[in-house]
Amino acid sequence: MKNISLSDLRMHLFDVIERLKESGDPDADPKDTIDVQTAKAINQTAQSIINSAKVEVEALKLIAEEGEISSIKNSGILKLKE
Q1: What is the pTM of this model?
Q2: HEC profile of 2-58
Q3: Whose CA is closest to 18, among 31, 8, 1?
Q4: Residue 67: strand, helix, or coil
Q5: What is the pLDDT along the chain (82 residues), one digit of tens a residue?
Q6: How far apart are alpha carbons 9 and 46 in whole angstroms?
Q7: Contact 50, 6 (CB under 8 A)
């Protein structure tokens, strides 16, 4: 699986919004539309990813408060250059 950033996630979510809007157009190409149930599933998955990122940020804040730079390097959350 390729690395996907939160910016990529944001782009995909805006695409879902556009496809939902197209769903209301009877002349829209079916490949450019999405049903509400699928959009909800995508939204729930995205929310899980966002919540995971929030936890990672909070963990980094706690580690940084302790001044444990070596812990940040070894956390696996960030890939830091030596």
Answers
A1: 0.65
A2: CCCCHHHHHHHHHHHHHHHHHHCCCCCCHHHCCCHHHHHHHHHHHHHHHHHHHHHHH
A3: 31
A4: coil
A5: 678 787 888 899 999 999 998 998 888 898 889 999 999 999 999 999 889 989 988 888 887 777 766 666 666 665 555 5
A6: 7
A7: yes
- 63's tokens: 């580690």
Calpha distance 16→46 (Å, rounded): 11
Distance CA 53, CA 55 (A): 5
Distance (Å, rounded) from C-alpha 44 to C-alpha 36? Answer: 12
The encoded tokens of residue 5 equal 């950033």
Nearest to 19 by CA among 29, 10, 8: 29
In a 13 Å sphere around the CA of 18, the CA atoms on its Cβ side amount to 9
